[in-house]
Amino acid sequence: MHPFKLRHIMGIALVGLLLLAGAAQAQVNLLWYKEVAKEGRIYVFNDPNEFKAWEGSGELGKSITKINYGPNGETMVFDNEVALDLYNFKHDKEAEVRKYTAPKAPTFPPPTTLKVADGELKFGLLLQAWYIMDDSAQATSGTSYLGNPTGANDFRLRRAEIKLSGKVTPAWGYEVMIDPTKSPSVTAGADGKVLQDLGITFLGLKGHEFTLGQKKIAITEEGLRSSSEIDFLERARITRIIGDQRQAGLFYKGEYGEMFAAQASITSGLPSNVAGTSDRLFYAARFDVKPAKGMTVGVSGGTGNQGTAALARDRIGAHFRWDGTETLPLMLRAEYGKATDGQTATTEIDRDGYYFSALYTFARQFRLGARYEMYDANKDVSADKLSILTGGFHYMIKGKNINLKAEWYAINQEGRKVNNILDEKYNQFVLGAQVAF
Predict the structure, then answer these.
(1) pLDDT tens per residue across span 94-147
(2) How far is CA 184 from CA 41, 57, 142, 159, 193, in A?
(3) What gap in Å lies between CA 350 and CA 97, rounded to an integer?
(4) Could you tell me the fold of the domain covering 113-436?
(5) For residue 223, with 0-12 CB atoms within 10 Å meaning exposed, 13-18 middle and 19 or more buried, which class applies?
(6) Rounded to two decimals, what is the model's pTM?
(7) Do 354 and 336 meet the contact criterion of CB atoms below 8 Å apart?
(8) Residue 347, φ and ψ in degrees, nearest 5
(9) Is 245 helix (H, G, I), strand (E, B) or coil?
(10) Any idea where the domains of the chain sit in the sequence?
């Protein structure tokens, strides 16, 4: 054989032997084994880390113990099943026969974000269903505090929000949300809310968002929260009066470091899904300070013309929010709001209201909550105040994603009549279920 070829063959063979030796060494390391006799027991280890921990503490966590299993009837302690198998092999003992359990097939949750062209598409869903009980007298017309027929015990499909959002490029995003439980009317003067949100957003400036479309005006803290993240089944009355309103316009949201945040909106002043027939603008803004982790203190307000008659509207509010800590899961909330509404034939109306609430979570899944709220629909009129005391027990199966809420409302609505009979005080009970992602 040609010497050159022979040297090549010998080199290849040598490399092969080295690889085999390395593999053998790796196998030896994989099957690490050690026996230690101590205090009448024999400890067998397959994991060197377990052995080192045992040497330091003298304690072995999860292990396998076999009485009278040693060569002289000693108790044997194995750190895992591999150690037991290696011991049996070394000492010519019959191997353990274990029931075979097939590994579970991997499961993958359905994707909520899809890659589409150069961008992405994200799906969102919020479903809420209620059962409502009302102990006031039944009337032929009219609704009670939460919107169900007066005096009726009934089921209600509260929300079915379907949201699509995402980015087309890193600098441009979009969102659209519909709610099929709302009225489909989109005629002038009506507030058809099947279409909830619609926005085209510029994201090219880090920490800032600029959106053109239809969203909530920048007033109140609770009113701007997603319906899936509010504390009780329904928002407080004052936040629904001055905030929680969708209008078409230009919207801004920004973060200024870890302590400050701001939102602003310039909108049409008209209800959502309603086209304007005259010039009007409504300006709103909100500013937040975050002095500590989980705590927010802020103010918000708005001014301009609202409604189809383009009447003057002024709003101002202040809010406090604390989300608690890991060791103290107590959430505290408080808001005050004031509204001045111009009228077509009379002087303007001043309204105000407030609420404060506390919610305590225990066992990580159960929550007790209480809220007191007051709303004065006209400060120049006596005996027209609304006050509500709410108590709730919430089963947070998976936070906001899956939960059940049972709530009781003690309502005192001054001047309220049912069938022309004064009926100011009444109670409501609501059981609500929510699924969201």
Answers:
(1) 888 777 777 777 776 667 788 877 789 999 999 999 999 988 887 766 677 777
(2) 78, 71, 21, 14, 7
(3) 83
(4) Porin (2.40.160)
(5) buried
(6) 0.72
(7) yes
(8) -70, 165
(9) coil
(10) 1-25, 31-99, 113-436
